[in-house]
Amino acid sequence: MLARLHPIQWLGPHPSPLRLQATDAFFGLHRHEVLLTPRYARLQIGTVRGQKELINPPVLGAISQVPYAEPNWLATGYHSAYFTDRHRKFQAWLRKIVEEHLIPDAHIHEEDGKFPSPHTVEIQVYVSRKPSPFVSD
Hints:
Layout: H1 2-5, H2 22-29, H3 33-36, H4 85-112, H5 118-129
Helix pairs in contact: 4-5
């Protein structure tokens, strides 16, 4: 179904067995998060009854398991003499704020072309002025 909506025409006509690979082709070219944004959610036409979702949406604040998608100091099993657990806690705290409040607002205003909502600006000011519990004196 995604094949008709994507400009790539090599997927073939409807009866073609390549049509069955439209989902594979989509995920070969795009990340799963593309379908989660309001802008492209309309491209997801439906689901197959009885099928289990193989690609789960990302968990809020989770570190990506894709190699080199995150800085090395965030990867499990990586030890750094410079970055400590305090850095990891700060990064998790800030990522949670960004993913909960700023990214959804950015998606909304990317569509309408307006400025960020006052609530989003208040959150940014709060984060920039808040004394972080992760910074030592």
